[in-house]
Amino acid sequence: MSDLTRSMAGTDALLAAVLGPKPELLTALTDVHLAARAAVDAELLDVCEARIATLLGMDAIEPSGKPTDAQLACLAFTDQFVIDVSAMTDELVAAVAAKLGADGLVNFVNALLVVEQRLRAQLMFGRLVPELVS
Amino acid sequence: MTVVSRVPAGARVDNDLRATLAHWQTLVLALDDVDAMTTEVVRLRAAKHHDCHT
Q1: In this structure, how many other beta carbons lie within 10 angstroms of the beta carbon of residue A112?
Q2: In terms of pTM, does the model score above 0.90?
């Protein structure tokens, strides 16, 4: 099991514990996560998820290999998305669209939203209910 | 910063991703465990963060 997979399993377990009393919410959150992962290249989303975790101060090991041009464009987008999404530039958006295409761009942005909110939820619930963090 | 759409014309979100995301967001909006004042404070902060004027 990779570090990223282990970290994601921790996120799943925490969210399951917190949302246990609201099973419909947990199911919906799981479904949208699966849909996000199915809609975007898995390695690309993994790389960006690791970057999000790093930016949020979470334990994460970013891939050590040389990123592809598409990954570089998406990582630059991810940095801005996490740090200050309202200041996203046309150039960052266009760079992702140039690599992924129009549909790929909108799928990537939606998937990035999904994985980012999961990690932010993990951080928030970890502080609100630390007894649930293993 | 531009205020025009930067999404290429004709771009379509994956059907499953769009549907599941809409369902999730609908369920979240229906939650009423947080009091109205706190909800509004959070909503306004999120709107400012996202440069949303709706």
Answers
A1: 23
A2: no
